[in-house]
Every structure is written in structure tokens, then in C-alpha cells.
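My current task is to audit a protein record that another person submitted. Please read both lines and tell me whether the C-alpha cells look consistent with the sequence. Do not assume that whoever made the record got everything right. I have pasted the whole thing underneath without changing anything:

===
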Amino acid sequence: MAAFIFRVGDAVWVDGKRYSWEEWKKIRDDPGLVTQSQQVDAAKPVAGPRAAACTTEIYYDEFPSEDERFRCSAGLGTLTREQILQGGWKVDLIEKIPPPSGQPAQSPRGLPLSLYKLVISRSSGVDQPAPLPRAPARPSASSKIVDTLCLNDCLGNGSSKGFCDDRCTY
């Protein structure tokens, strides 16, 4: 199962939850700590919408920068990626939407233009899945974490899957 990891300065966001860099290093070495943290969070119900879609206002030839805002449904307004994560949202899907016919399809750099749409969700705390069994203390070589944002951006820029897997897997 892939986790969404996002780092801003000394803060690390993993599936919508904020950790300090030191906390993240401990969790990375002992994945059972994440499960314990999720069990505590499951008791707190979340008010408001549980799913939304956020779309860029303009067309980009690459994934927008950190300070760009997305127009979100479900009454969320316009938010940056950091604000989305701070709200407890998890990015489930990133979709590239091409421009309609009659509009420029390429940027001045010759790259294809797209609107970027994020499908986001958060759990209510009421219907959480049963806790996973405790993982071994050291992650195995097969339990790698994939940065889905990095992977989608890399693949969207025309790179090979093998290259993107190596670049975006921790």
C-alpha cells in the first residue's frame, strides 16, 4: 500500500497527518507507530465533507508549484497543497485534463498543457478499517513507499515507468 508523503521544511506529511522530521524517522523505522497513531485518530469523528475534487485555475505544462492554489469542491474554497494536507485530506488521485479543442495544447516550451485535478478524501473516524497486524520492526526490502505525486508528475512528463519508480520510491 503506497503512502502519500510530502515534506515542507522540517514537517513531513504522511497521508494527511503531520509529523516532525524526528517523528517521521522513528515511524519510518517502526511502521507499527503509524498504526497506533491511526487508532487514536479513529476515535475522533471528522465534521464536514469526506471527499472533494480540487482543480487548478489555469493550464500548466508541469505539476504546479507549492504556492499554487487549487479550486476545491464541497465548499472548501481555494487551497494550496499544504493547506489541503493540514485539513487532514489525503490525495487519492491526480488527473491531468487536456485543454478543449480550439485552445492552445502546448506551452511555449513545447510541452503539453493540462489542468491538474486532485481527488481528495478523509475518513470520518466512524468507519475506519480494522487495525493492521503489527509490522516487523525493520521494513523489508519489498515494503517501499511510493510518492504518488512524484510518480504521477514524472510519468506525466513522458519519463519511463522504470525511471519514475526508481526516482519516486523510498
